[in-house]
Amino acid sequence: MRISTFFYTLKQGIINIFRNKWFSLASVATISACLFLFGLFYAVITNFQSIVKSAEEGVSVTIFFQPGTTEEQIMDIGSKIEARDEVSKIEYTSPEQAWEYYKENWIPEEFSDGFPDNPLENSASYAIYMKDISQQTALVDYLNSIPEIRTVNQSELAASTLTGVNALVAYVSAGIILILLLVSVFLISNTVTIGISVRKEEISIMKYIGATDFFVRAPFVIEGILIGVFGSALPLGTIYVLYNKVVEYIGTKFSVLSGLLNFLPVNTVFSTLAPVVVAIGVGIGFLGSFITVRKHLRV
């Protein structure tokens, strides 16, 4: 494309927006509303997933070893477990550490002298934490296959609940995003259709004097893309301001929940949200205008 053609196409796309300014404003407003809801939904879901992830990281599988298992065997088994893909970290508790913990937390000091040196001498254990709680079953099956392991303690309820929550969030997110995208594409399509009908005579003349299909289509595609850009910039600015204010308000008014509700920093959320919203806005504008032009121009 020549530079002159590019600037002509850009100019015509901008002129189309102002020529159909009410429809353009309606499209920008609708895309902004859709992307604003998408952005809010994304911010809530991202924080919710972060909370669920923190809960997952606190769920562990604990293993105890058969009597007579040597320290060397225990360390070797620990190394093999830690090397597995689904394991994020393991924590070893020796019999001595276990006994000290019980003495400090459960046995009054005046009674501790009546016990043997270490009644928990066969209580060496590993607490195994996973990257993804849904992989707990596979990990437990592996652990049960190791002869030196006596007992495997797991939380099936926590695993099934957290896995179910993650699946539900994924399905709901996909459904809402699809609905918002379809509504936005529909409105862009209507705006471009109006633009085509207004310029129908001009387009016919352009075709008669030899204008290419690309030359005729390009201004409408540019119009759709610009509407998408404007429609994505407005909600991003609004969400950025609102997010900080809401997080600050909740932190001030509901400080008792600060240990449970650890909100992500706004920059962490926007590092993904901003490019995604802009890409969706531009994509909606491009697809809505391109599909409509192909359907109605028949060039």
TrEMBL record:
It is a multi-pass membrane protein. The keyword Hydrolase does not apply. Gene3D superfamilies: 3.30.70.3040. The chain crosses the membrane at residues 21-45, 168-193, 214-243, 263-293. InterPro entries: ABC3_permease_C, FtsX, FtsX_ECD, FtsX_firmicutes-type. It comes from the Bacteria. GO terms for cellular component: plasma membrane. Residues 59-152 form the FtsX extracellular domain. It is found in: Cell membrane. Its main location: membrane. The keyword Amino-acid biosynthesis does not apply. Belongs to the ABC-4 integral membrane protein family. FtsX subfamily. Part of the ABC transporter FtsEX involved in asymmetric cellular division facilitating the initiation of sporulation. This is Cell division protein FtsX.
